[in-house]
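Q: My labmate handed me this sequence with no annotations at all. I'd like to see what the chain might look like in three dimensions before we decide whether it's worth expressing. Could you predict it?
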Amino acid sequence: MKQNTLEVEHLCASFFTEKGEVRAVNDVSLEVPAGKIAGIVGESGCGKSMTARAIMGLLKYPGKIADGRILLDGRDITSLPEKEMSRLRGSELSMIFQEPMTSLNPVMRVGRQVEEALRLHGHISREEAEKRTLEIFEAVGIAEAGKRIRAYPHQLSGGLRQRVLIAMAMVCRPKILIADEPTTALDVTVEAQILRLMKKLCENGTSILLISHNLGVIAQLCDYVYVMYAGQIVEQADIYTLFDHPLHPYTKGLLGTVRSLRGDEEILDTIPGVVPNLLHLPEGCSFSLRCSECKCKEMCTKVPPGLVEAEPGHKVRCHLAERSMEASEHEEKQVRT
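A: Here is what I predict for the chain of 337 residues:
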């Protein structure tokens, strides 16, 4: 069995505001094995990016990690001093941010920004850093790389800025790469290039935690998937099991929003309602107010469901799934007796 490059155990991250504690990440546990890609999927506001920032140690006041552990190659990095955490970022732990407009220094040439990351963590000469930067620019599909390397961020399109961020995150060949919507601003041709590059990184030993709302990208790249809703993992399974046999109503709803053709008609389903305010979550299941399968009001709206294992490697946080499992177990016992 492959060792996990990244392990997150019962992570809780909160923002302490005048109106009260906002639990943006609530008891999240996940694993990313060496050389594999794990995905986190869910709507905006479900806690995906906050989970990534907590792992990177980038939560700023009034936010902080309230509980849990983050292990990188078995080493607990949850409470490392900022100086030591800074040494890890970029070298062993790296992240592609989803805001290309604001994540680059506006007064520094983009090539120099990538070279700076290399020289800070790689301890190499300026000439070697320039060579590596040019290579990574070409690898992520930046046309006229020799020219673009001398450009300032405002001289590049949003798609090019996104590719620069991807190059910066990949250039030091980190152990774990967290990619937060890495292909959002890219056209399909460049997206395919980036996805191929990420797969190649995995073949060379880098593990990836991919955050995306694009189920097509998740299906194409990931080995294992975590579905998040209102700060919690509501379902997790390998990619084939999740897409073929989803158990949570929210997962079913997400998969139903993917365009499909039934006969001559194009069907696009929707999930009614919105993600609840984290200050005022429902008393029971956080998805109960939007759930089309919520029949047991006393159970679903009053009792928070736990994350239970439906089958090896497949976990779900749902009372209906629990009842279905109990019924199946009861039937099996009757057959055996």
